[in-house]
Write a structure and sequence with these properties.
The protein is α/β, with parallel strands linked by helices. The chain has a domain of 185 residues: NAD(P)-binding Rossmann-like Domain (Rossmann fold, 3-Layer(aba) Sandwich), CATH 3.40.50. Strand 1, helix 1 and strand 2 form a beta-alpha-beta unit. The relative contact order is 0.13. The model has no long low-confidence stretch (mean pLDDT 92).
Length: 337
């Protein structure tokens, strides 16, 4: 841990900081920043940040970002001297996400992707902060040609009147709000369109692809794949994703929108076989039709990230899956359905 004083460090706010990616981001930011983590645990977990709560440069605020956030009302933040030293960066990752219980959080999702974004940007205007927004690859919709990776300049094709509209269209609307604030107030905003990410602290027992495959292997149950033997995806380890997010935030003001994800396609049946090897499981792999309203954005074109940020995913899939198996094996008895 750095020995820099409070005043020498940047003040950074992370919404959704107790979530999967957000907690890993907080870990990295603590190397040289004072970190204000905002979350309300609607779909995240205190276990993700428990190891940070005693860190002097970390402060947690239990707050719903759909309500205005007045940092001056929190006396525990006095040591960061936000009033005088400012708030240099805001990472907005807050958004209720639960594949298994999506319908339970629709209102919270649509409000976070509208009013919540406004509250974050109002803070940024007040403090002249840089803002990074964690958007999603779902904006690209289903791609007619999977052999052509999707670029940031490609058209976003969404059916906004689906049961997932609160999330899918909400992400697109959020991007529009960010760009509007950038145009009107001159804010430096960054939009990261995140593709499929996996790793430790990913929610288990929640319908997520890699955790479900790992858990089923550990329990000797069938590993179920939506699709067939040729169904493919891309998988980016959370360590690489956080590195990309940090590089995007530190980029010049003229860099706004960047895809972040793995541009290497893997067959899901191959991923399942790797998991079986790591776990030593005798589980079978079976296939079923795609789930309703399944969105397959295809592979990301990450040439902008490579050229402008000097970023490429580095974690080998074999190593990443080993870490995921270790995490799931250690935590499956601590989490209930």
């Amino acid at each position: 841990m750095s020995t820099k004083s409070f005043t020498e460090r940047k003040n950074v706010l992370v919404t959704g900081g107790a979530g999967f990616i957000g907690s890993h981001l907080c870990d990295r930011l603590l190397h040289d920043s004072n970190v204000i983590c905002v979350d309300n645990f609607i779909t995240s977990s205190v276990a993700n940040i428990d190891h940070l709560l005693r860190e002097p440069h970390f402060e947690f605020i239990n707050h719903d970002i759909t309500q205005p956030l007045d940092l001056s009302s929190y006396k525990e933040l006095d040591r960061f001297r936000v009033e005088y030293n400012g708030l240099q960066e805001i990472y907005h990752l807050a958004c209720p996400i639960s594949k298994r219980h999506f319908d339970d959080f629709k209102i919270a999702t649509v409000l976070t992707n509208s009013i919540g974004v406004k509250h974050v940007l109002d803070l940024a205007v007040a403090h002249h902060s840089k803002v990074l927004y964690a958007s999603s690859s779902v904006l690209y919709g289903n791609r007619p040609n999977r052999d052509v990776p999707v670029k940031e300049t490609d058209e976003c094709r969404l059916n906004h009147l689906t049961t997932r509209g609160a999330y899918d269209e909400g992400k697109r609307f959020s991007e529009a709000i960010l760009q509007t604030y950038a145009d009107v107030y001159g804010l430096d905003v960054k939009i990261a369109r995140l593709f499929r990410t996996y790793g430790p602290r990913m929610k288990i027992f929640d319908g997520n692809l890699i955790p479900d495959m790992v858990l089923n292997a550990l329990d000797g149950k069938d590993i179920t794949i939506s699709g067939d033997e040729e169904t493919r995806t891309s998988l980016c380890n959370v360590k690489d994703m956080v590195d990309g997010i940090l590089r995007l935030m530190s980029s010049p003001i003229d860099i706004t929108l960047v895809n972040l994800g793995s541009d290497e396609e893997v067959r899901l049946v191959s991923v399942a076989q790797k998991i079986l090897q790591v776990t030593g499981s005798a589980s079978r792999v079976r296939f079923e039709p795609h789930i309703q309203q399944y969105i397959d954005p295809g592979l990301p074109d990450i040439s902008r990230a490579k050229e402008l940020l000097g970023w490429v995913p580095l974690v080998r899939l074999d190593d990443g899956l080993k870490g995921m198996v270790e995490y799931a094996n250690s935590n499956r008895n601590l989490v209930s359905f």
